[in-house]
Automatic annotation (TrEMBL):
Keywords: Cuticle, Signal. InterPro entries: Cuticle_Struct_Prot, Insect_cuticle. Residues 1-15 form the signal peptide. Pfam families: Chitin_bind_4. This is Cuticle protein. The lineage of its organism: Eukaryota, Metazoa, Ecdysozoa, Arthropoda, Crustacea. PROSITE patterns: CHIT_BIND_RR_2.
Length: 209
């Protein structure tokens, strides 16, 4: 009996055309609704980074070109433009004395010296009190020679010390000399008065000798 049903089923299956395809419908299942997961919040400490140490920048020194100044243009009528220094000296010593001089191409010369000297003068103490005594001062002497634009030659010498500044030169003005007669006191001629003579009496009209 079982064999009969199997044979019948096979015969029916063989009789179904090969183009037949069974139609299956996809099952419609509702989308699962899962709750959102809850994760624990982790608290991390703020990282401590060391302060960065940067090396100081090395900048190259700027190279500036040397300024180019135009050569001075002297007036051709300036007769002093060609004057130059022909000699010069300058000495400074440990004792405070100095000596210097110079000469120019226009024959102008000058020399000067200075030394320290003890002299009488005014001094002040730390409280500002003034006193008169021995002080150390500078003395100076020198000379100078030059020619004026008119061709006149001048020579000047000088000294400066405790007596003051003392210049000498033929071109220096001289104080005028006032010549006058001194006034004479008037002579008063008169007779001197004579004191009276008192002759004593004795009270009886007789003179007492």
């Amino acid at each position: 009996m079982k064999l009969f049903f199997v044979a019948a089923f096979l015969a029916v299956a063989a009789a179904v055309p090969s183009s037949y395809k069974p139609e299956y419908k996809a099952p419609s299942s509702p989308a699962p609704n899962y709750p959102a997961p809850k994760y624990p919040t982790t608290s991390y400490p703020a990282p401590a980074y060391p302060a960065p140490a940067y090396p100081a920048p090395a900048y190259p020194a700027p190279a500036y070109p040397a300024p180019a100044y135009p050569a001075p243009a002297y007036n051709k009528d300036n007769k002093y433009a060609d004057i130059t220094i022909t000699s010069q000296s300058d000495e400074r010593n440990l004792d405070g004395s100095t000596q210097w001089s110079y000469a120019q191409s226009d024959y102008t010369t000058r020399e000067e010296s200075q030394v320290q000297k003890k002299m009488q003068g005014v001094t002040y103490d730390s409280y500002g009190k003034e006193s008169y005594g021995e002080v150390l001062g500078n003395t100076n002497k020198g000379s100078s020679y030059w020619v004026s634009p008119e061709g006149q030659k001048f020579t000047l010498t000088w000294a400066a010390d405790e007596a003051g500044f003392q210049p000498k030169g033929d071109h220096l003005p001289v104080a005028p000399v006032h010549e006058y007669e001194l006034p004479v006191a008037p002579v008063h001629e008169y007779e001197l008065p004579v004191a009276p003579v008192h002759i004593p009496f004795n009270g009886k009209g007789y003179k007492i000798y």
